[in-house]
UniProtKB/TrEMBL annotation:
Ranges in coiled-coil conformation: none
Endpoints of the signal sequence: 1-20
Gene3D superfamilies named among the record's database cross-references: Cytochrome c-like domain
Record protein name field: C-type cytochrome
Domain of life: Bacteria
A Pfam family per the record: Cytochrom_C
InterPro entries, A to Z: Cyt_c-like_dom, Cyt_c-like_dom_sf, Cytochrome_c-type_DH
GO molecular function, one term: heme binding
Cytochrome c domain residues: 27-113
SUPFAM superfamilies reported for this sequence: Cytochrome c
Keyword terms of this UniProt record: Heme, Iron, Metal-binding, Signal
């Protein structure tokens, strides 16, 4: 079931200097859920498990804590062959998404399937484009 945002997570986030109130973070996660449904769910599925040999599972806390990898994968897609040698089907770039949409998706997937919510600033995304 969906985990709710813990206060501990928020304090950890705030102490890193991100300026987001609890309400703003909740709004971002909610927006991220909708954006994920429209742009990612077709392949990675509603539960994030993907589809074996075709689309990788996103339910991996290490992956969901890796800011750079997430931003780069969403903006530029993946052109490398599948790590497990499965059928080759690459991740298409999602660079048509706005900076806020990408930040929201990352907040949603990390909060839902990772160890803690990962907040990425729109500036960080802009810089990686
Ligand atoms: C058309 C299908 C498709 C869509 C749509 C799609 N992906 Fe992917 N995604 C893939 C495939 C295939 C891979 C594996 C690429 C590879 O490593 O070869 C992948 C890889 C990834 C990875 C890296 C996984 C890892 O273990 O390294 C992340 C993160 C990811 N996708 C997130 C997303 C998000 C978030 C969205 C929506 C914005 C999205 N994807 C939309 C097909 C898709």
């Amino acid at each position: 079931m969906k985990r709710t945002l813990s206060i501990g997570t928020l304090f950890a986030t705030l102490s890193l200097g991100a300026v987001a109130s609890e309400q703003e973070t909740r709004d971002l996660i909610g927006f991220g859920a909708l954006t994920f449904a429209d742009n990612c769910m077709k392949c990675h599925k509603i539960d994030g498990y993907g589809e074996e040999a075709l689309y990788p599972s996103l339910r991996d806390p290490a992956l969901l804590a890796n800011k750079k990898l997430l931003i780069d994968t969403l903006l530029h897609g993946r052109s490398a062959p599948r790590r497990n040698g499965g059928e080759e089907d690459l991740m298409p770039p999602r660079d048509y998404l706005t900076d806020r949409e990408i930040a929201a998706i990352i907040a949603f997937i990390s909060n839902t399937w990772g160890d803690e919510v990962l907040l990425v600033s729109e500036e960080e995304i802009k810089a990686a484009r």
